Amino acid sequence: MENIRKVILEAVPEAVIEEAGRLTVTVEPDKLRHLAKALRYHAEYPFDYLAMLTGMDWGEKLGVNYLLASSKDLSKEVVMKTGTADRENPLLYTVTDIWETAHYNEREVYAMFGIRFINNPDMRRFFLNSDWNGFPLKKDYDANPVLNPVSVESKDIVDIAPRIMETPNGFKEENVRVFEETDYIINIGPQHPSTHGVMHFRVALEGEMVKKIDVHSGYIHRGIEKMCENMTYPQILHLTDRLDYLSANINRHGLCMCVEKAAGIEVPERAQYIRTIMDELNRIDSHLVAWATMCMDLGSTTAFIYGMREREEILKIFEQTSGGRLIINYNVIGGVMFDIYPEFQKDVKAFIPLMRKRLKEYDRLFTGNVIALGRMKGLGLLSKEEAISFAVTGPAGRGSGFASDIRKHVPYALYDKVEFTEIIREEGDAFARYLNRLDEIEESLKIIEQLVDNIPDGEFLAKTKAIIKLPEGEYYQRVEAGRGEFGVFIESRGDKVPYRLKFRSPSMAAVSVMPLICEDEKISDFIGIGGSMDYVIPDIDR
Question: Mean pLDDT over residues 369-389, rounded?
């Protein structure tokens, strides 16, 4: 990374560089974009993947952390930091023209911290209504419910976006229309079964063709990241399962590892084996739901029933292991909560040939169906460059040629000790994303096969202190969940509760690209394209 340090100092000589686990560079707001472009367009390792954009309240400053990685080597990471001391009218420069994924992330930061981004074309609050009082993740936020009473009155949606633009004469605040006055707009969701949760799409149509989509999220209002600031690390574990509930075990694994690395806790080898096997069972479970629901979105109820049938075999294993089925509460700091039950290995080994047989059945039932192919092939096209810029990872990103599997590129647990193939396709359409999930089920079966007979004896849980306090500092952990990269960021001030905790949502990236890949497609194909992206709404609305 010495070469990267040189690039940083050439771009911004006064930049402050630290080696805090990751190369971390702090710059003044007016130098941020210059540094961002220098890193983004670096010849050898272009930092073209904005993995995480995190709003921060450091007390004396409000600011943002940017975790960057290079699509050429995801293990190459740089953290950029900037902030402003103006808490009344905090302004920073946008990076939306450098990384497309910044659009919704900057709107989230505005909603939660009040930071507005100069030259961002749409500065509406993401997740919150425009009339919300206060900014919930600021440390001086007044949570008095009287300030934000729950209303039962219906409100008209105002399709007006405020923004602040830089001109030769200074900053200009203005409002722009989201849609044209003559646009014909329909609402898809939030009460629509095929939006896969309470997601609301405002869709402008030209005949039966999609002209423009405006994404509205924030109907759940759970405030998990705010709750985390008042909970100990073991207490927070229970919230991770409820983000992407179909990747519950993997999410929780990510938070456990982040805390374990920060606290210097060594996880027993037996627990590592169990965690990795359970993660892969969870991945198969997740991909089965994705396959089943996408097929049902396209009209195949039989496929949905088949997918649920095989998933039930995994849920039985989960239930006997932990007592849970969807939210299994299994990973804990230092290992796993319970040892595996006596028949665990036998049941897992029996499931493997069954699942392989069913995969062939899925192909006969749906994959080769001429009607299904007509509704997937060539639709919802996403190029590799767009997938990287929008930070679309997981099977969806790999369907566009973006090699983004964290298990391969930044291995954790036992993924550096097993052989498996990263499934990548170049077509970038709904069919490529569909096939990727089925192929990844086979790769998960291969990983499980290599581990299940080799689980070592020993402890399944390390001894930890009753109260876990992390050393002061910033900690990141990235894992490969069912929908792509799930990230955990913790800033600790040495207390038993985090000063700031942020979860990186792979589903938010998947939804953010919907306006792009659905443009000029038929409204009848909108649902199938959405199913191919496989987003889970509570993962977005944290």
Answer: 95
